[in-house]
Amino acid sequence: MADAVKTVDLKKAYRTEAGDLEVLHGVNFEMDEGEFTAIMGPSGSGKSTFMNIVGCLDVATGGECLLMGESVKNLSPDRLAARRNKFIGFVFQGYNLLPKADLLENVALPLLYARVPARERRKRAMAELEKVGLAKWSRHHPGQVSGGQQQRAAIARALVGKPGLILADEPTGNLDSQTSDEIMSLLTKLNDDGATLILVTHEPDVAACAKRIVRFRDGLLVEDAPVAERRVV
Ligand SMILES: Nc1ncnc2c1ncn2[C@@H]1O[C@H](COP(=O)(O)OP(=O)(O)OP(=O)(O)O)[C@@H](O)[C@H]1O
Ligand SMILES: [Mg+2]
Asked: What residue ranges define each of the domains in the chain, with the CATH number in brackets?
């Protein structure tokens, strides 16, 4: 079976006014389906850059990234977007929900891009909202629910396309510790049910819910270890 994610000597240089700035210097990483990995490391160490490349939101400038055994090298922006829609569900710190759409419409959005018919979109979005405990709130707009509920809706949106991989970049960054635990409990349950997850966090308590922790420093992966005693939330 192919790895869910594999990067080989992955490099990224951003083009800046002062010239090219390399911020990932050759990252080697492998992860099987069903794993749950937390990425930690100081601010600016390249965690989000790495996630964006793995998530096909950005492209590497060196090395390779493979998703389910398929390289994303040299794909056109359209093909990259298609790969992203097929394989990846994103969860961000700021939820990134559309404020003028209700939760059901927000969760259904990836299916609209995938040209799923309207009735099926609603049905599948509702099923995901139920999974995250938000069925009652489907007609509310993001501004009418709590931060934790918004993040749960964002998780439902990440799940609705049945992606092979869920990427969460500081999903609890804006939440108090109790709400953060609720989100981690939900992500843990999704992983128990088979979802493959990568999560970036600055909080050791959050990382301790994962099965494995990798650490970035100065654009390199410097440590990779299983979690000896996972925190149960
Ligand atoms: N679009 C960009 N253009 C130029 N430099 C960038 C760009 N995005 C990120 N960088 C730089 O790349 C480096 C890595 O940034 P990145 O956002 O990946 O760090 P991070 O580990 O996610 O940090 P944080 O914990 O603060 O989110 C930083 O030095 C940052 O300033
Ligand atoms: Mg970041």
From this structure: 5-95+164-226 (3.40.50.300)
